[in-house]
Design goal:
The protein has 304 residues and is an alpha/beta fold. It folds into 3 domains: 2-83 and 264-286, NadA-like (Rossmann fold, 3-Layer(aba) Sandwich), CATH 3.40.50; 88-172, Rossmann fold, CATH 3.40.50.10800; 176-260, Rossmann fold (3-Layer(aba) Sandwich). It contains 14 helices and 12 strands. The protein has helices at 2-16, 28-33, 40-49, 61-70, 93-102, 116-119, 131-137, 150-159, 181-190, 204-207, 216-225, 239-246, 269-278, 287-303, and strands at 18-23, 36-38, 54-58, 75-77, 107-111, 124-126, 144-147, 164-166, 195-198, 212-213, 230-234, 251-254. The relative contact order is 0.17. It binds iron/sulfur cluster.
């Protein structure tokens, strides 16, 4: 079944002059047919560089919207409309406007995993891979209103000299939050020689026990370059497939099987085939929001 559908997807891709981008957390079969895999920054870079007419984004809502904003002259489609990131929804436009009023001297740095209409009010956006560099480079000694993920803001506040103000106060990725210190201790007991890698969306207390903390692409690079053969992965479980694919000679254990992102598993091969065949679902961002959100996304590319 998979071989036939993969063949049809390949044919449609050629006919439509399309490229498929897939996040590292997507289903293994989706990752395997993608032209480009990566974290948010890598996928958006690929979306800006491609010369294809159609870009199929297998990821969550805000990523498809960012790709569309950066490519107003291309057709950007997403195989599903249900891939909604619950973290991004935690910062509301109203709350951001209020915080900006309360901290008029602060700069606003939003994680890519935020709603597009809140990005439109930011000075800059960042990904897990470039959050430190961007926070350091943002103008002067002004405080930074940072949201919506507290794990990432904790990571930035511990590694930069910047004053970080969380917005909202307790934003979290419900998937990474499922990984607990207890899970990690148990896994370390079972695999004492394994190095621990984690994503900054993990709880702050997890971040204190790791050998490497960073984006999904950073984790892949770290594991490739490390001389070690075993790794405990405190990240969304989908990343294990990417790690195994890139490093078949190394062993990767998820710290918790509970860290499963449903939103990142909404794209399936039949949905990708249908998306290519019927040109759906086209990602359309209202012009006013798209123009305003494009500025902070482009600023990220300038500073990263
Ligand atoms: S892993 Fe967390 S932040 Fe990433 S898409 Fe899923 S819910 Fe959103």
């Amino acid at each position: 079944m998979n071989a036939r559908i993969v063949e049809r997807i390949e044919r449609l891709k050629r006919e439509k002059n399309a490229i498929i981008l897939a996040h590292n957390y997507e289903r293994p079969e989706v990752v395997d047919i993608a032209d480009v895999t990566g974290g948010s920054f890598g996928l958006l870079s690929a979306a800006m560089e491609t010369s294809t007419d159609v870009i199929v984004v297998c990821s969550v809502d805000f990523m498809a919207e960012a790709a569309a904003i950066l490519n107003p002259d291309k057709r950007v489609i997403t195989p599903t409309r249900d891939a909604i990131c619950p973290l991004a929804r935690q910062l509301k436009k109203k709350e951001l406007i209020k915080a900006k009023r309360e901290h008029p001297d602060a700069h606003v740095l939003l994680y890519m995993n935020s709603d597009t209409e809140t990005k439109a009010l930011a000075d800059c956006v960042c990904t897990a891979g470039n959050a430190l560099k961007i926070a350091e480079t943002m103008d002067g000694g002004s405080p930074i209103l940072f949201g919506p993920d507290h794990g990432l803001s904790y990571y930035v506040s511990k590694r930069t000299a910047k004053e970080i103000i969380d917005i909202p106060e307790h934003g979290l990725c419900p998937v990474h939050h499922k990984i607990t210190v207890k899970d990690l201790m148990k896994a370390k007991e079972i695999h004492p020689k394994a190095k621990v890698v984690a994503h900054p969306e993990c709880r702050p207390e997890i971040q204190n026990y790791v050998d490497y903390l960073g984006s999904t692409s950073g984790t892949i690079e770290f594991c490739k370059n490390a001389g070690d053969a075993e790794f405990l992965v405190a990240d969304e479980v989908g990343l294990i497939h990417m790690l195994e694919k890139e490093m078949p000679d190394k062993t990767f254990y998820p710290v918790s099987d509970m860290a499963f992102c449903k939103a990142m598993k909404k794209s399936t091969l039949p949905k990708i085939e249908e998306a290519l065949e019927k040109d759906k679902y086209e990602v359309v961002v209202p012009r006013e929001i798209a123009v305003a959100a494009r500025r902070p996304i482009e600023r990220m590319f300038e500073l990263a």
